[in-house]
Design goal:
The structure holds two protein chains of two kinds. Chain A folds into two domains: 2-43 and 250-444, no CATH class; 50-162, abc type-2 transporter like fold, CATH 3.40.1710. Chain A has 16 helices and four strands. Chain A has helices spanning 2-16, 19-44, 63-74, 90-102, 116-119, 139-162, 164-180, 186-211, 251-280, 283-289, 294-323, 330-352, 358-376, 387-393, 397-409, 415-444; strands at residues 52-58, 78-81, 108-112, 131-134. Chain A has a four-stranded mixed sheet with strand order 2-1-3-4, with helices on both faces. Chain A is elongated. Chain B has helices spanning 50-58, 79-82, 100-110, 115-128, 144-156, 174-189, 201-207, 225-233, 268-277, 292-300; strands spanning 10-21, 24-35, 39-43, 65-70, 73-74, 85-88, 162-166, 193-198, 210-215, 218-224, 236-242, 260-265, 282-288. Among the domains of chain B are: 10-84 and 161-230, Rossmann fold (3-Layer(aba) Sandwich), CATH 3.40.50.300; 235-289, no CATH class. Chain B contains ten helices and 13 strands. Classes of the chains: A mainly alpha, B alpha/beta. The A-B interface holds A 3, 6, 10, 13-14, 17-18, 281-283, 285-292, 445 and B 55, 58-62, 78-80, 82-83, 85, 87, 89, 91-98, 102, 106-107, 109-112, 138, 154.
Chain lengths: 445, 306
């Protein structure tokens, strides 16, 4: 056993120096897992995380204009980028915002003119002219942004009615203007004066209503002024009790078994190359002359590959766990990982004898890897494969590996159910080791 | 009290060894013994069958027929026999991405060395290869000569009794070659048995007690250097320029070409001395004694370097 351990340790040290091999063993699967997991997460979140980053050039600097900006931020879809230099002139701020849009740093800018606060949110007065400059390449988002601007303006209307005192000077000024306007038709003057009087009385009533409620200033159940009361309705299909995907805790549950697959295939290819390199660099000759058996040489190689696969699996499980993957059973996961590692040793042994040069073995190994990954769940998760691909996938050893991992992570397999894919993996591993050793013996005698 | 069993004088016995690769006969009915403490040369051109013979002796390859005994035991008997042998293959057999020290530790460990003994032997091997100051450097950063020396050191790290050096000076600079020669001479002085294959006759002449000449898988001759020269070397060639033609031309062993004389003799110095006493004055004199090149030429009809 000491000799086998020596051999394995030496191979692990050698692989540590193989930067390309290490990338495919560690870097690539991590990238795959994180990338596909992140993509799946963004799909499953339904676009809740969509944000538009805009700049607001506020020339008014009034309480109302600032309330409008806050309403935009409170929409949940807008991030208002503060000006680089808040003390800069308004024109300079506007120029800066336009430049940022040109460079693609911002989606849009919103310009609030002087006097914005005097009329904004007052329905009977002409609304302020809000400037809106949008990145022309993102016209699809422009419509949505305009909707959010209107929504925030609606919020201002509500705020005006919630704060009648801010409206009363405007009403008084309007009544005075009406009275002093000699050009106005007397009938129209009487009508408008009456409306303003009624509005003033209405504001007084609102004032009384508001002052009698919620002194703490917290949100109460009282009716508020809203342009529309919109209630979100979930239109997605309800999940069935027997729906397999209902057991998936997070997107990482799906992406990580597939990513692990790439890692273990990386191990198979890398260690297969070390085997043929041993022959091409002459060290295999020295090993055969040494007082160790050929079985020990092969076992040492296999052990190194086995350890590497276990390490890759543990690393990926730890990373997945940190990101949110929650295996159903760690014991079953250990069983799946051990079986998969044994299978990979067999595949490695076979790969190591399919060519006589490092280039041939490396090329053929990765060719075989891509096919195995394609039908084994490395590119499309098994759970989402169309039926014909699922049928073909049974011929890929890796599909059984992914099934065993998924069985332990989210499929909720029983022990009996686990033994089936694990048994197949061990059988494939044994067959691979047997065939590989046989060919190796024939090739080196 | 029982008398201890006397050890056989030979430590390696190769008997009627044969090996073919398809239609090519690489080794054909080769038989020889190597004595304890002897440096035994296997001389022949590339493709003569030297490396195949070595590979069968060390157990890296199975022969089609014949026997190999190491210290009275079949090489296939296992680990205890293999521990007696250290080999430096013709192709470098080193892990490029490991350091010199790690290579030595690994190969030493394979032969069962551990702990202080392993450290001691690794230090010895690094000193032997003059790589003490580069012990932690990766082998891939070494020059060809350094790699050759480390290749030899890996063969010696487990302190073997029998050392097989397969073309150890191929592709090395003169300085490293001299160092390798000195190392081999130290091993000889230390009483190790060495089998040395080469196609450089100078190396065989300098290092080997006995030399076996191989070509096309066959052992053509086996003897000491003097024995081979005496049997297959032929006569020495004497070329001389005379000051003037002798009055009696019949005293000359060959006809003159102007003032130039060329003749062959098994005892060239005696012949030159005889001519001098008869009044022949030499302006120039060159005696070309037979060497392994002429032995090989005599045995195969072609040059060793062809």
């Amino acid at each position: 056993m000491r000799t086998i351990w020596l051999m394995a340790l030496k191979d692990l040290k050698i692989v540590r120096h193989d930067k390309v091999g290490l990338f495919f063993i560690i870097g690539f699967p991590v990238l795959m897992g994180v990338l596909f997991g992140a993509i799946s997460n963004s799909f499953s979140s339904g676009g809740d995380d969509v944000h538009f980053e805009i700049a607001v050039v506020d020339a008014d600097q009034s309480a109302i204009s600032q309330r409008y900006v806050k309403a935009l931020e409170d929409s949940g879809s807008i991030i208002v980028r503060p000006p680089t230099d808040p003390n800069a002139a308004i024109e300079a701020q506007r120029e800066q915002a336009i430049n940022d849009i040109r460079k693609g740093d911002l989606l849009a800018f919103v310009g609030l003119p002087e006097g914005f606060g005097e009329t904004a949110g007052i329905m009977w007065m002409e609304g302020p002219a809000i400037e809106l400059g949008v990145d022309p390449s993102r016209s699809a988002e422009s419509g949505m942004l305009q909707g959010i601007l209107m929504q925030a303006m609606g919020q201002l209307v509500g705020d005006r009615f919630a704060d009648p005192d801010s409206m009363r000077p405007m009403i008084e000024q309007s009544r005075k203007d009406i009275q002093e306007n000699n050009d106005m038709n007397p009938a129209a003057r009487a009508l408008l004066s009456g409306f303003m009087g009624t509005l003033d009385t209405f504001m007084g009533s609102l004032d009384e209503l508001n002052s009698g409620l919620d002194d703490a200033g917290e949100k109460s159940d009282r009716p508020t002024m809203q342009l529309a009361n919109i209630r979100a309705v979930d239109v997605t299909a309800p999940k069935q009790e027997n729906d397999l995907t209902s057991r998936i805790h997070s997107a990482w549950d799906i992406s990580f078994p597939s990513a692990i697959l790439w890692g273990v295939l990386g191990c198979a290819a890398t260690f297969a190359v070390t085997m043929v390199r041993e022959r091409s660099q002459g060290t295999f000759y020295r090993l055969r002359v040494a007082p160790i058996s050929r079985a020990q040489i092969v076992a040492g190689k296999g052990l190194a590959c086995f350890i590497a696969v276990i390490c890759v699996n543990l690393m990926m499980v730890a990373l997945g766990y940190a990101l949110g993957m929650r295996p159903n059973s760690f014991i079953f996961l250990a069983l799946a990982i051990a079986s998969l590692a044994f299978c990979v040793v067999g595949i490695m042994m076979l790969m190591s004898v399919i060519g006589r040069s490092e280039e041939a073995v490396s090329g053929a190994s990765w060719g075989a890897n891509v096919v195995m990954a394609m039908f084994g769940g490395g590119m499309i998760p098994l759970a989402f494969m169309p039926p014909f691909m699922k049928s073909i996938s049974h011929f890929s050893p890796m599909s059984w590996g992914v099934l065993a991992l998924e069985g332990a992570i989210w499929r909720g397999f029983s022990l009996t159910e686990m033994l089936f894919p694990c048994g197949i993996l061990i059988a494939i591993g044994a067959a691979g080791i047997g065939a590989g050793v046989m060919v190796l013996n024939r090739a080196t005698d | 009290m029982a008398e201890p069993t006397p050890r056989a004088p030979h430590i390696i016995r190769v008997h009627q060894l044969t090996k073919s690769f398809g239609s090519l006969t690489a080794v054909s009915d080769v038989t020889f013994d190597v004595q304890r403490g002897e440096t035994f040369g296997l001389l022949g051109p590339n493709g003569a069958g030297k490396s195949t013979t070595i590979s069968i002796i060390v157990g890296a390859m199975e022969g089609d027929g014949g026997q190999v005994e190491i210290d009275g035991r079949d090489i296939r008997e296992g680990a205890s026999v293999r521990r007696l042998i250290g080999i430096a293959p013709q192709s470098l057999a080193l892990y490029d991405v490991l350091s010199a020290e790690r290579n030595l530790v690994f190969f030493g460990s394979l032969y069962g060395l551990t702990g202080a003994r392993l450290s001691e032997r690794v230090d010895w091997a690094l000193k032997f290869a003059q790589l003490e100051d580069r012990r932690r450097d990766l082998v891939k950063t070494f020059s060809g000569g350094m790699k050759r020396r480390l290749n030899m050191a890996c063969a010696l790290v487990h302190d073997p009794q029998i050392i097989l050096l397969d073309e150890p000076t191929v592709g090395v600079d003169p300085q490293s070659r001299n160092h390798i020669f000195e190392c081999i001479e130290r091993l000889k002085d230390d009483g190790r048995t060495i089998i040395y294959t080469t196609h450089y006759m100078e190396e065989a002449q300098r290092l080997c007690n006995r030399i076996a000449i191989m070509d096309h898988g066959k052992l053509l001759a086996l003897d000491t250097l003097d024995g081979l020269l005496a049997e297959f070397g032929g006569a020495a060639v004497v070329t001389a320029g005379l000051v003037k033609s002798p009055t009696d031309a019949s005293i000359l062993p060959a006809a003159l070409d102007g003032l130039h004389l060329r003749f062959e003799s098994k005892q060239p110095l005696e012949e030159v001395s005889r001519l001098a006493t008869r009044g022949v004055a030499f302006a120039t004199l060159n005696v070309a004694k037979p060497d392994l090149e002429s032995v090989f030429l005599s045995l195969t009809g072609r040059s060793l370097r062809d």
